[in-house]
Amino acid sequence: ELGIRIPRPLGHGPSRFIPEKETIQVGKEDATMHTLFAESFATLGRLDNVTLVMVFHPQYLESFLKTQHYLLQMDGPLPLHYRHYIGIMAAARHQCSYLVNLHVNDFLHVGGDPKWLNGLENAPQKLQNLGELNKMLAHRPWLITKEHIEQLLKTEENSWSLAELIHAVVLLTHYHSLASFTFGCGISPEIDCEGGHTFRPPSVSNYCICDITNGYHGVDDIHASPAGIIPVSSTESVCEVEALMEKMKQLQECRDEEEASQEEMATRFEREKRESMFVCSSEDEESAATRDVSRHFEDTSYGYKDFSRHGMHVPTFRVQDYSWEDHGYSLVNRLYPDVGQLLDEKFHIAYNLTYNTMAMHKDVDTSMLRRAIWNYIHCMFGIRYDDYDYGEINQLLDRSFKVYIKTVVCTPEKTTKRMYDSFWRQFEHSEKVHVNLLLVEARMQAELLYALRAITRYMT
């Protein structure tokens, strides 16, 4: 009556992909989750939607929040406003306006100069110099060399120290992979954020004209099948789960009977690496970066390209020669104390997390499946484990799942609900969120390995 426009939430719940009734409801959480919510609220000043989806896996969420808090707020080489600005630069590379907007607020809150937000060219030269590393880490980390590191460390008055650079690299990889999680789980903006609300007139009997124009036709709609998805009979989906479990059993038996030779293992890796290039998202239209987000980075046309395209041959990164456990961890811990430990814990939790269930089945050993997902992601980045048989990947990950993995990891901004719905149709949403945690951590570790190897080469 007063003509005041009242914001109303655009979405239902923290994720566009997961029905609200299937997420953890605030107020109905157990004691562990309640503590995590309180921690998240104390750290971020809000209970954000990322937390509300990640809480499906409280053990991981606790490790994630601890790491993020340390990177953004505890003692470290970089000043606070630099940290948030680097978060903005990293999230912007994937057009993740959700994360960009969160950090714009935080940047201003810790005293950052609003002028920097007009575009990267308004930020100090030292931060502008980080732009090249940001884009390569986000899209083609295998191209990073010790020369790139040298440029950052040796540019006279705008040079980075080694400790500052490690802090920056960890922040960049953290936010690239968090953008993957945000898009992969369809995280909705909160009501007070851009894109999180609409101003619509109060509805008459909970039903208004704008609902109809927005394609919403009342409660019954929620139970209809998502647009463009052919409902799958539950027996077909159950068969999918059974078939996957049968394959796992067969592979385990083959493993026990015979082991492939090193040459054969190397051939299978190369084959999988080549095949991963031909997996591309079906919704492969170009998504144009909005000016709002793209001003935070240079070279907007630079994006993901498969490493073996156009005759470019990238040498295989062999984990025996440079691994997180033996090399990366100690380098990070030496130059930025405690962070190596926090990252290591987070990698281990995501990789080893299991409830021994698969869809409706209990007491299942899922380690083979988790390893296949992790190693497939590293394979897409040209990283090889000598002791792994890459022939298992094709047995365990079907095409629609590979499309989802590659999209979320390499071009997360192109992820759609259709892709999310089309893999593992009989699995719980919590299991799909777990897949996303594996994607996030495997991607972060792959980026880190290339950056840290280049830093090590520079130092030696």
List keywords for this structure.
460 residues; AhpD-like; 2 domains; two-stranded parallel sheet; 20 helices; SESN1 protein
Describe the structure.
Its main location: cytoplasm. Belongs to the sestrin family. It catalyses: a hydroperoxide + L-cysteinyl-[protein] = S-hydroxy-L-cysteinyl-[protein] + an alcohol. It holds the Pfam family PA26. The protein has 460 residues and is mainly alpha-helical. The protein is built from 20 helices and six strands. The chain has a two-stranded antiparallel sheet with strand order 1-2. Strands 3-6 form a two-stranded parallel ribbon. The protein has a two-stranded antiparallel ribbon with strand order 4-5. The longest helix is centred in the last third of the chain and has 31 residues, at 429-459.
Summarize, please:
Belongs to the sestrin family. Helix content is 55%, strand content 3%.
List the helices and strands and how they pair.
Layout (H helix, E strand, L loop, with lengths): L6 E3 L21 H14 L4 H6 L3 H16 L6 H14 L3 H13 L15 H4 L2 H9 L6 H8 L8 H23 L12 E3 L9 H5 L20 H24 L4 H16 L13 H4 L22 E2 L5 H12 L3 H14 L4 E2 L2 E2 L4 H14 L2 E2 L6 H6 L2 H12 L6 H6 L6 H31 L1
Parallel strand pairs: 3-6
Antiparallel strand pairs: 1-2, 4-5
Helix pairs in contact: 1-3, 3-15, 4-5, 4-9, 7-9, 8-20, 9-18, 9-20, 14-15, 14-20, 15-20, 16-20
